[in-house]
User: Fold these one by one.
Assistant:
Number 1:
Amino acid sequence: MQPIPRIAAATAATTALALLLSACGSGGGEQTSAKDKQTLTVWGMGEEGKHLAKLGKEFNKKHPNITVKVTPVGWDVVHQKLVSAVAAGELPDMAQMGSTMLGEFIELDALDTVDQKTFKKDDYFPAAWNGGVKDGEAYGVPWYVDTRALYYRTDLAEKAGVDKPPATWKDQMDLAEAYKDKAKTKWGTYNQPANIGTWQTWVPFLFSAGGELLDSSGKPALDSPESVKALEEYAAYFDQGLSRKSSPPDYDVVKDFGSGDAPMFISGPWIVNNIKDQQPQLKGKYATAPLPAGESSTSWVGGASLVTFKDSEHKAAAKEFTKYLTSTEQQAHWYEIAKSLPAKEAAWDEPALKNAPEQLDAFEKQLKTAKTVPPLAKWEEFSAKIDEGVARVSQKGESPKKAAAWMQKATEGLVG
Amino acid sequence: MTAPAHATETAPRLHKGEATRRRLLLGVLWTGMIVMIAPFLWMALSAFKSEKDLGASPTVWIPDEWTLIHFEKLVKLLDIGSHFFNSTLVAVLVTVCNLVFCSMLGYALAKLNFAGKRPVFALVMCALMVPGNLMLMPMFVMVSKMGLIDSYAALVLPFAAGAFGVFLMRQFMTAIPDELLEAARIDGAGEWFIFWRIAMPLVKPALATLAIFTFLQSWNNFLWPLVATNDPEKYTLPVALATFAIDPTKTNGSNGVLMAGAFLVVLPVLLVFILLQRYFTQGIATAGLK
Amino acid sequence: MATTTPSRRGVPDRTSKVRSGAGAGSSPGRKRGPKLRRDRLSVQNGPGWLFSTPFLVLFLTFMAVPIVATFVMSFTDFGLRNVADPFSTEFIGLENYTKLVDDERFLTSLFNTSYFVIVGVPLTVGAGLFAAVLLNRGVGRLRTFFRVGFYAPVVTSIVAVAVVWRFVLDPADGLISNLASEVGLSSPDFLGSKALAMPSLIVMAAWRNLGTAMVLFLAGLQGIPAEVREAARLDGAGVWQEFRRITVPLLRPTMLYVSVMTTIGFLNVFEEPFVMTEGGPDNATLTVSLDMYHEGFRFFHMGYASAMAYVLFTVILAVTLLQLRLLKDKTK
């Protein structure tokens, strides 16, 4: 009996070590042909990640040899998880990548180039395509685009004596006040006060004030008078108690929109779907509108591209799946499932989009004038500084001018 | 065990003030008990309340209708089964490793005399004081370089031999009479045999304590698994729950789903604790007494 | 070595030798006992090291090397690219540390962590001691019941507990706000308020950890002989005096252990703000560990994060030594 446990212990110790040492290095190996039996791993994000699995199954019916395995990752952690996966060399074959993240992953040399004979630049919205281009090479195929517009409760607006959508910043402020004072809602609107992604609601204010993220020489322009003005306008809602000054990490505005606590907010087109699913009683009681104008009504273009990672051994299959997802019919189909706007211009002529619910009109209109967020390698950090700059105004009570100067200083080292 | 001590303590003073004092004492303790248990009760009740009752005013304390809707939603959103499996597998492996490795060294430190014993013991004591967060960055780099990100090995190996376990086992091993081991040696038994067949069975209660503590610690471990796994399929329960709890696209702000998640994470541990509570309190007390 | 290595071949040989030695006479053998044992023990290097190997290998790989590596990294600009290629990182001297001194976020996090520890540790240890003293005053069979209840939060995952408490403290539908509305009050937004967020986390931490302190104190209290108490009472000492003059001094070693362990744990506080507040509002609950996680694993400034880790480690070391000093001196 005696030798067995001793051997067991010894092997346990040595296998531990062996395990540690043996697993070193496993680079990109042989490419698998698109005709072989294989599993394609894809990371999806946020709302879209949830729906992508469905498309994977449909694709599998047409290509029985390719099984698509979709892993949805939350937006809050997806950046760090993907970057860490690049560092560790443990990547999926493909991912849906947010437009603002492309710059960083191109810089990291983690993405495979796009075959521009198969995927043609001219088929896509230029803003979407250009976000994935560096030195003439494209690294991502645009999958969907989105932009931000205004959601507001029409029933409560009526109660508050307002019968048309707010067209200017002043209208918007008046409506928020009317909601609170006359319709007795808890808040007048929801401006995200702090934490990850705050920039998404503030940048529309910046662009509409006539401001820019970067000036013509590529330096941050966050202390411009326009930026200060955008911060002032954003902050006014907190100062007057029209928007909550803090929200829990998983705050979902749709819930408060449904209860009427937050009768107005700025967000993207997928919210139409969320409202239908989670607050069905709101049918006919809300509307969307283009962003109320400061100097102009200007939103930003976001969205996601499909990327294939350099180390993937299933590039041919990845190309097939990308082709499938970006085909005109699939783009229209995707719109029906996820209410994501097609990145391929031809898809907008499909019946699904022609007959879209009126709530989507605002987004379509907004898209025509929306500006791109510049592809920065350090956008994650850059945007975190904006998040913190806004929090300085909303939570610390710092003056917009001081906060703008702080943002400028904090971002200067992050460009170029 | 301690009942006689109380008898001698309280018996001579059983006059008038004593009854009121005892009532007061129990009052304070019951209040404390309610405070300690309230969050768990709240969690359990909320997990079974309908969405309507959750936000109702005036408050609905006991659900009108008990519903499993939050659990159904949770299972759709979160692959609880595989996270449960990950957590369990990792915790079992960590526990087994600790039982063997910590006992080995604990035995050596208590019962064997070898050159370098003192420095090794000093090392164990130092390791007890080192906060895990200190090593996070290089550990991530190492594990990345070894290609172990997203592997069970990465979650198990760094915790496979805890200093606390060594310390605990050493304390218990010291109490084994030397004569017993000596007699075995005289009979010609090898050290491994003595350790495995004589010492280990004698410290079974300590092994039980160590097993429970290690298992729990591993089960509740958070920061390292958060860093060492990227693929959500490899998340342990706490990592899955935490990333779920900060993701509005998942919870949609529903506290019911969150409470259902917390309920599933907390319940098994609480049940095990209540069943085995004797070992817990014994173990922690022994570990604390130097 | 040859005789100690427990090889099967050596066994009968050795036994016979020892047996014959022992058979020579029992009384001299016993007298020589200690010496004989030392002789035998002094030749156990082989098994001793063999038994130490698994721990030492793991310790070296996952503790010693990383501790040194963190230290080295804290003087470099270790970034994302270096994860794949660690040796191409560049030394930048003390730059990370000088940057930390000017880093408003880091200083805030250091302040918050200190706040958490300075208020949280005494609260936790005090509550644990209070509970232990009460439970030690003869509640009979109920003692186990209360002990289980008070200890229960300790065994549960901090993440789960943080999720639950986030809802308990929810200003709209939470437990506390519901209780408040029952008596016609309204509850503040605990986690959304700069002033209340940190105290809320502290109360929660005390709630979760007082069980450990309680169990340790209970063990310590049971170590105090009943006669000592009895003697004090016969001398006319009241409850308070007995507590002050007998319980507290005799519990000092336990108190030292509990305080040191709680402090180390609290200085690393991470899960609570990660789940409940994301460090907000206005960084009021940003702790060093959370800030380090952001720098290290969101932006991958690993050199900088390493410097943070070392500052925290130094603080932990200093506080531990200070506690050892303060509490030990008084025991004498």
Number 2:
Amino acid sequence: MEYRFNLAKRMLFNKKASLIGAVLAVTIGILVIHVNFVIFQGLFDAIVRDLTDYRFGNIQVTDEEDYIDKSDISLINWFERIPYVEAATPRLSTTASINITKNGERIEETRVPVVGVDPLRDIRASTVHKTVDEGQFVYSRNSIVLGSNVARDLGGAQVGDNVKLKIVDRYGQDQLKRFIVTGIARSPGGQGFDYSVIMHIDTLRDLMDRDGYTSSIMVKLNDPTKAIEVKEFFLRSFPNEDFIAETIEEAAEQQLAGFRSGIAMINMIGYFGMMSSAFAVVTIQMMLVNSKTREIGVMRAIGAKRKDILIIFLFQGLIIGTIGASVGTVAGLGYTIYAQETKMSWNNSLPLEVTIQWDKILQTALTAFSLAVIASLYPSYRATKLLPVEAMRTV
Amino acid sequence: MTKIYGEGDTQVRALQDVSFSVSKGEFLLVIGASGSGKSTLLNMIGLLDRPTNGNVIIDGINTSTLSDNQISSFRNRKLGFIFQSANLLSDLTVLENVTLPRQIMGNNGTAISDAKKLLTTVGLEPQMYKRANKISGGQAQRAAIARGLANSPSIVLADEPTGNLDSVTAETVVQLMKSMSRKLGQTFIVVTHDHRQFGDVDRVITTKDGRAFEGKESSKIEVTA
């Protein structure tokens, strides 16, 4: 076995161009998978992260009816007694018409989403307050934060401007209220409340005439892996209520479903790329076999069996696979760490949420290695088919 | 035995009804013009190719009954090859080339020390750690002789072993083969187109148009059964 490995190694390392070509093919195959993973899985995870941080939390509680009429304080206190729960906060949602008068001109926007928040609780359960890049978050009952796109559509509304909101209450009556713009919210990637306005939840309850009502409870966990456990515990604890409790994956399913199939397709393209690499390995190894025809003939003449020749070229596949998978994994890992450390994003868009998933890295490396070995099967088989007398005629 | 290449109109009878036996320890020259069938004959004896009709019997074993694996083992244990252009494996050192037949056999125990002894005998001690493609043609041919003898084969087959060498180096190689034959008592079957280089040998067979004749002239007795 030792001489066959030695011979395989020497033959391969003495054909440096072929070795580099084959190793590069495997490396690029792995790198494509890593780059795809970093970009597309990173984008997916970033969207999940922002939806969790801004909108749903790790668990979102709603009601089969439009609103939760049970006291939000009692539900929040119930949640916050669970060790896995970091914080919980109520949210109330509706739509409104907003108008502003700028330079004597009245600008109106209709059907603008409105989110009512409890400012003191919200900053513990959500990071939406961090998206306020001008002014500050909601701090009083007559302050309002405009999403950057709403502010733009209102002719460039700024902090300190007065805006008037018209909301239809539960009895179908229009309710008007004037607010001072205290902040403008702008999130990278637009997963925050860029298209909404944010106000104090109690102000919104008053306007809607829904005192004590809540649209949803957003629950943030200190250990997101316990989401299902906490959700099920909650539903078991309130069997007679019509609550709906969903994890982020369930709550944001609509937003994420398309993305998931896109990622699956991109991954498939990546694996097709890896298969192309395998074909490159086949070609390079066929070239190696062709260039070693005479040597194969000599080895057969001095007693090497077909099996020995097969093993020599399979060893070459193993060497190419091992080096290619190692170099590819190191390069891919380097790229992943770079993307993670620099919080990679494009044009100030959503910063990717890059995680190092060792199981996927190992799976990719093993797949590339296996493909390289499988790719060497045919050239190795071809090498065994050379007749010594024919092979020796080759110069 | 008979060896026919091709079919129909393109059929070539490379060997026709050739039959002879060689005794243990004999130094046999096979001479003849280009295309007379001498290399084909050597390929048949060396089990590198199979005859169309007939058998090659070595040490009482009819080799036509052996499987491909058995033939490989047989070549490895019983036969040593010396080719016209040395045919050393360029990826290995001279020593590794000479050790290779023993490693293929699986007999690694004294393979390296025996190979070193052989290389010393053929005067290649200083070159043994050089890559095979870094030595001269004469040195490569001497290394090929050492490799051909590495397994202590019963029969050493040499195909134009001096064909690519200058006259001085060729003379050295011929003397080396003859001295090894005398020293080790092995059978040498050497194919050459120039028998004068070899001087006196035990026996000469001449090939012409695929037939074999005893002696140096084609008018001598045809060696068929």
Number 3:
Amino acid sequence: MLKINNLHASVEDKSILKGINLEVKPGEVHAIMGPNGSGKSTLASVVAGKEEYEVTEGNIIFEGEDIEELAAEERAHKGVFLSFQYPVEIPGVSVTNFMKTAINETRKAKGLEDMPAKDMLKLIREKSELLEIDRKFLSRSLNEGFSGGEKKRNEIFQMAMLEPKLAILDETDSGLDIDALRIVANGVNKLKSKDNAVVVITHYQRLLDYIVPDFVHVLYNGRIVKSGGKELAHQLEEKGYDWIKEEVNA
Amino acid sequence: MDLKEKLVSSFLAFENRVDIDSYVHDVRSEAIKTFEEKGFPSKKEEAWKYTSLNSILKEDYSVFPKQENALEYPQVKKYFIHDIDTYKIIFIDGKYSSHLSQTTHDGIDVCLMSAALSKPKYQLVIENYFNKAAEKDSLSSLNTAFSSEGAYIHIPKNKIVEKPIQIIHFSTGNESATMLQPRNLVVVGENSHVQIIERHQSLTSNPVLTNSVTEIFASKRAIVDYYKIQNDNENASLIDNTFVKQSRESFASVHTFSFGGKLIRNNLNFYQNGERIDSTLKGITIIGEKQHVDHNTLVHHIEPNCESHQDYKGIFSDRSTGVFNGKVVVEKEAQKTNAFQANNNILISDKASINTKPQLEIFADDVKCSHGCTIGQLDESAMFYMRSRGIPEKEAKALLMFAFSNNVLSSVKIPELKQRITKIIANKLGVNIGFDL
């Protein structure tokens, strides 16, 4: 599904990713861990198509196609989804209208008619129940005045609405209390299937108790320096990142 | 001969042609003198520092349209709010079009200025109100001197006018360049409500210059909502001088939607003569290319316990330029005044610019006055967020602009008008957004 080959990326001439290799197959859950500033969020943004980042070497193949030249919206239409670490507040645009626009623009890109209003309402009801989101919440301005937990829940609600092939969850666990964490993880797990894949970017092992990864990768200084199974996450939780840094620097 | 000389020298011929009573004759003669003295405003004047009329004054305007032109309704239907029943006062090249209009004298007067100026039964209203709100500045005086046609709306007390009134001025451009000077008078009695929609529309690529004066009087507890749609073509310029005089407990609002035209200058003035008055001035400006829109507002708080709310949003692309100059005067007697003013702008291009200046003159000591102006760009992180959800760049931009303008749009009380303005904005931004915000 996703194949990242020797990816180098920089922002304002500062090199951040220095040769990432990663392959994600349908049905898999990958976790990317690593200390602050290792390039985790940059990797997520580069895959999603943020223009500030310049890919200087390597490529990103999604479903057999090099997507590096595609705009963010085109990647979204193909099924790439990024759950933001810091969801952006957009005053004046309600959650419902935002989702309607996103879904209908995605349908338009695929040559489909707008989704009938009745179906849209049904879908919204269904998915908001999955994330235990109050109806009133949906008419509020997108992310404006939302608590940290509400913002993250809203991200996964959007993911549920858009049903992406590849979902990248960038620090979705940060700012969540244990109840919100459970709801969010539960939502992600219910959306999992053998045809889609999830990449979880996180600092801590906590979220991985709920969303159990098939593979764990450690990103350090712009490279994946270690990969393993879910036990690697436990090891990191116990021992921190210093031993990895030492291994790399040795 | 420059435009000023041409206007001054044609005044006598004009004065002899029209049939008017002596009161208006005196007002006009006085006005042409004022104009002759002051001339057109120049950038040397503080209030005109950022708006130059030079480029539009150099045309050889025809001051009096020579022939009458007709338009058929299907040709111009799209400029009307046609999905609701309305009164209509329609002008073509400055002349009344009975064919396109729907006026009334049934309990209220929705008719023509020319009739009101010439018929004895309107004489008292004219003497009490005509030119009683307008300032004696050069452009208003010029309009006064030549005023002969426009809308005359008189609502007696205790009338709720159910149908909005549309005033549309079309210009057809049969002359190579046309100058129009419409004059509107709106008098609203105690406890009465009225909604008015005004539009100037050129149907030609020949230059058109409109110097319009509208006087509005809101009596005790009257509610007046006035909407201006300024979406003209790139060769049409508009100087709009509007004066609103309010009595106690009245509510008056003016919404100005400026989306098109070569140069637009809005001189919008509110005078509060009484307690517990509410004045609302709102606007959305979305322009591009080399268009120029200037909002020059004044709210004069004269008595205690009154409010004013100003909210102007501007979005400027290409080489377009904007000006906002908002003056609030709070007199010593006007204690407990609440005056709010906001002017927020987004510059889409590096070449676009906005000059914004709040001016507060407060002589009372127990007041709440706030003002704020912002100039920013479209939020890049919001753009990426929306695009990552599959909303293309153009649509994402449009959505942000709608959201930015929403405060103003949402206070439009006529749903069909709000829909129309949403559509004009969507067309302008080249998007088809399938919902109302």
